[in-house]
Amino acid sequence: MLNYVKNEWTKQWYHEVVNAMKKYDHWYFVKNNPLVSDADYDKVYFAIQEYEQDHPEDILPDSPTQHVGSDLKDGKHTVMHRTPMMSTQKCKTVEDLRKWMASTTKALRKMGRIGKDDEPKFSVEWKYDGCSCSLVYQDGILIEASTRGDYMRGQDILCHVKNMPSIPQILRSGHRNDKGEFVVGGAELTGRIEVRGEILMPFAKLEDTHGAYKDARTAAASILNTDTPTPYDHLLEFQAWQLIGNEATWGEFSDAVTTHLEQLERMANLMGFKVDMLP
Is 274 assigned a catalytic role? Predict the structure, then answer.
């Protein structure tokens, strides 16, 4: 039983909880069978984070705060990410969020991305509990699909992605009609473009696995971890959240996007990907 009483935290305690988290990570990312709930996992993570803020000299290089959890398995074919595929930073209070926004604003001003008196605009989206995925298109053809992995290389999942209806195999421009449906028809893509997002098992479709998986997140991870396509690939869905590809051109839409919101709008309205944007 881990001790959460802060005034009893010691260096030995810190080493013990870091080792415990390494075990939790292995069972979560590799075995797809979590030992603890997400709430308990976060409680341990934040305790480690708080201890490290008070004792930076004790930080271990294998602490969960110092790396991205990896889903790579021995013997699996991997794909290198051209751009590191990092994980999101956690926060647990509104005050933590305000501090992050303040530090981000300061950094943007220092970099000259905004004026010294300007305030940045932030995009708010749902955080899904699925498997992060990178899709690479060359001249409009899907050529690579991989997981986040260890952020530098990911596991090849192209054989599963090819069976997912929400992921186009050939990327062509289009538009949304009055009903919000995506209609293909327009310029072809030239060059390389990468779309990143989350692969999910919707709760409504979990029932169609007939009890093969205990929860939606485990279902998505387990399906993608198999070496060959499965009968459940078509149940998975993809939600896009990042567009990378300034070297690609698309007819009249050759201008590079400059904001994250523009990325989301282009993926949704021009490419037809599912995208969630909170008002």
Answer: no
